[in-house]
Amino acid sequence: MIKLIMSDLDNTLLPLYTQEKFVDIWFRDVAEKFREHGLNQAIALNAMNEGCRAMVFNKGDKLNIDVFYEVACERSGYTREELEPVMTDYYTSTFENVREIARENPYATEIARLMREKADHAVIATMPMFPIEACDKRLSWVGLSASMFDLVTTYDYSSSCKPSEKYYAEILDDFGVKPSEALMIGNDVREDMEPCEQLGIETFLVTDHIITHNLPYSRFRQGNYPVLIEYLKSIK
After folding, report:
1. Largest Cα–Cα distance of the chain, in whole Å?
2. pTM across the whole model
């Protein structure tokens, strides 16, 4: 029996034109916020970049948000009290500009409905490098909201990142669910499918915006959005 259904966000529920453009817009607008707040753009941007890298390689001893600011402060010489208001300002204002690279997904609301209907718990298992404001905004672009789910993984929740197995194990542990009782929906073979396979979590690979990293993927249950919906309907 499936008790927990997880779904990735970017390029799974929320199609994006390119991940690279996402990063370009992010850095452009964060740099402008640094300027507005009187911080050195070059120094602060380099610190943000290093902080993001540190989150990706977080081994699980600290929350991602704490790792991010620890490294960003060390690299920039600014304090967390100086950097955090800038990031909060950004995520609650001009982060909306990322929407220009988002595509519509007419299947998103039905997938979300089935996630909640077919399991005790529904989780948005997105890369936990953002605050809830950024996640909720991205969900809204496909007609969803964070309040519709039992959990959205954010940088103040998770202490590791994809593709670490610890990232997924932490979610299962918090809900008291065994790997065999969970399902992960995602589009990325390396970040979504392989770690869940190693843990024994059921998987569904969404092929509409698939990212393979040149890895083999034929062994995974897979299909486009309509196939995913039919699969979710079949869950007892």
Report:
1. 56
2. 0.96
Could you report the per-residue pLDDT of 82-98, keeping only the tens digit for each?
Answer: 999 999 999 999 999 99
- Contact yes or no for 185/228 (Cβ under 8 A): yes
> 10 Å Cβ neighbour count for 36?
12
Over the Cα atoms of the chain, what is R_g?
18
What are the percentages of helix, strand and coil residues in the chain, rounded to 5? 55, 10, 35
pLDDT tens figures, 6-32: 999 999 999 998 878 888 998 899 999
The sign of the dihedral angle between the CA atoms of 72, 73, 75, 76 is positive
Rounded Cα–Cα distance for residues 173 and 225 (Å): 29
Q: How far apart are CA 68 and CA 58, in angstroms?
A: 9
Beta-carbon contacts of 196 under 8 Å, excluding residues fewer than 6 positions away, are 168, 179, 182, 184, 186, 202, 203
Q: Are 151 and 179 in contact (CB under 8 A)?
A: no
